[in-house]
Amino acid sequence: MNKLIFADSAGPTFQRIYNNSHFALAALLPASLVSPQDGPIAKVADVGLAATITVHNHIALNYVISDYVPRALQVPARGGVLALSALTAVGLTKLALSGPGIGGAVKELWKKK
């Protein structure tokens, strides 16, 4: 649990995960956007995006806390980030599995009415 709260300083494994999440996002987002919304490729890409976005943002926000939040407030801020990351994971997974998907939701932003 301590590694999740202090994800920015949890060691080389978390750093490697964060660095590789850039590549995963670069591959999954276009796959989700260009594949048919109800197709299996879009579903797999959307579930992958839900996980990757959550992990990427969680680690990145912990870096922000380390750099900009006063030491006395860092632990509560990290707890808030952990709660936010959990909510993000639940919301994006629900969107990916039972909604239009992450790519489908983005496409709806540009849909002509």
Automatic annotation (TrEMBL):
Keywords, ordered alphabetically: Iron, Membrane, Metal-binding, Mitochondrion, Mitochondrion inner membrane, Transit peptide, Transmembrane, Transmembrane helix, Transport
Binding-site residues, a ubiquinone: 68
Name this polypeptide is given: Succinate dehydrogenase [ubiquinone] cytochrome b small subunit
Subcellular location: Mitochondrion inner membrane
Alphabetized PANTHER family for the sequence: SUCCINATE DEHYDROGENASE, SUCCINATE DEHYDROGENASE [UBIQUINONE] CYTOCHROME B SMALL SUBUNIT, MITOCHONDRIAL
Membrane topology of this protein: Multi-pass membrane protein
Keyword Heme: no
Keyword Oxidoreductase carried by entry: no
Main location group: mitochondrion
Domain of life: Eukaryota
Family designation: Belongs to the CybS family.
GO CC term, one of those recorded: mitochondrial inner membrane
GO biological process, one term: tricarboxylic acid cycle
Listed GO MF terms: heme binding; metal ion binding; ubiquinone binding
Binding site for heme b: 56
Pfam family name, one: CybS
